[in-house]
Amino acid sequence: MFVNCLVLKIASRCNLNCTYCYMYNKGDNTYLLQPKFMSNEVTDNIINKALEHCVENNLNNFTFAFHGGEPLLCDESFFTGFVQKANDLFKEKSITCDFILQTNGILLTKEWCELFNSLGVRVGISLDGYKEINDKNRIDHKGRGSYDKVVSGLEIAQNELKQKPGVLSVFDISSDPQKYYQNLIDLNLRHFNLLWPHANYEQLPEAYLDTDVTNSNNTLYADWLIQIFDLWYTKKAETKISIVIFEGIINLLLNSSSGNEDFGTEDNRTLVIETNGGIEAVGALKLCGDGFTKNDANIKTHSLSDALNTDLAMVYHKGHKYLNKKCTHCPLVEVCGGGHVHTRYKKDNGFDNVSVYCKDYMKLITHIQNAVYDSLPIQYQEQWEKITYEEVLSYLDNLDMENIDNPSYSDQLLSF
Fold first, then answer.
1. What is the pLDDT of residues 308-320, one digit of tens each?
2. Would strands 270-273 and 279-280 be described as parallel, antiparallel, or unpaired?
3. Of 1, 277, 353, 356, whose Cβ has the fewest other Cβ atoms within 10 Å?
């Protein structure tokens, strides 16, 4: 087992206070025990341990992702020192490094962009739609909306960065899909992704708060995404907007990709490093409870392989293979992969559940499959078989789950 990306929580504080943030506002308070910034000792260990891991696993490329909190609360010397040292050491072993940074955009300036150009750091910016929707949740510590400041930073980045910034959006289904999509066009975006609202059975999606999700056939999140997809798919050649979630599903349907963190069959190959050096599974798992992601692994004392062998990291790493038995019999499993691991959590039985978004995934994937099918030339349509959401739902509802054996790894899923 190996990882090829480290998410570095280089700052444990943020200049925004987004209402849905799993770091600060969903019950995990461990950030209060973290140093505000990552030390040189921690960064030196990160670079050295990552290099050792690459050599051990014959990797020729590795990605460092600067995150927070808000990473631009660090000073410029942090990025210069880290990138230069990593490049120098990795180059000696003929290994290349990629550097990416995810920011809320408020602190972006021309000077920051010049620095990231010189260091080869790619930048992603978080923005949750048009002004009224973004400012519903992405607020500062005084409750003020962030849209105008973020867009100002985005425009600077679009003008100054050699590699145009991508935008990441936690979508809100109370928004108007037509207005939402038009906002992407108005902002002249080229690379965009939609992030499912972080949720599980203990912290339900907002639209399902009063719903028995296990027995409900609600697909409100898929219904909203399908409207965006239809707007995009019919005009993508014209607008030239890349929407990662949709392209990822299409590539999985066409067998041209093995997936990503949300969908597919690929192992998850990312670990998180906190400001104190703690090595953890992906941050979204903080949604499962206060201190849920904590373990004894630290970059100062453990290798990345050691950290991968911790219980939670293992379940995350194998997240698209360690599935509830119902998932393993689903005709969409090769595309869906059970969805993101954290969306399956329930206190009663850990991760041994279908995703809280299961039916939304089904409806979205079947809709995209059929839209792609209908757009293919007839000779290629013969290689596919259309399937509807209702057919998948009926098939799964009629499975005799009592007579299906539990997978060998079920105890690992139940142990949390």
1. 999 999 999 999 9
2. antiparallel
3. 1
Say yes or no to pLDDT of 276 above 90. yes
The pLDDT value recorded for residue 113 is 98
Look up tokens 């898929």; give the residue.
222
* Residue bearing tokens 């041994």: 352
- For residue 165, give the amino acid letter: P
For the record, the structure tokens of 17 come out as: 């206070």
Six token digits for residue 409 = 């790894």
Nearest to 47 by CA among 77, 12, 13, 91: 91
Rounded (10°) angle between helices 110-119 and 147-160: 50
The 10s digit of each residue's pLDDT in 112-150 is: 999 999 999 999 999 999 999 999 999 999 999 999 999
Backbone angles phi, psi at 238, to 5 degrees: -80, -45
Closest among 62, 69, 66 to 116, alpha carbons compared: 66
Which long-range contacts does 20-26 make (Cβ < 8 Å, 24+ apart)?
A: 20/137, 20/170, 20/197, 20/198, 22/198, 22/283, 22/284, 22/286, 22/287, 23/69, 23/283, 23/286, 26/198, 26/203, 26/286, 26/287
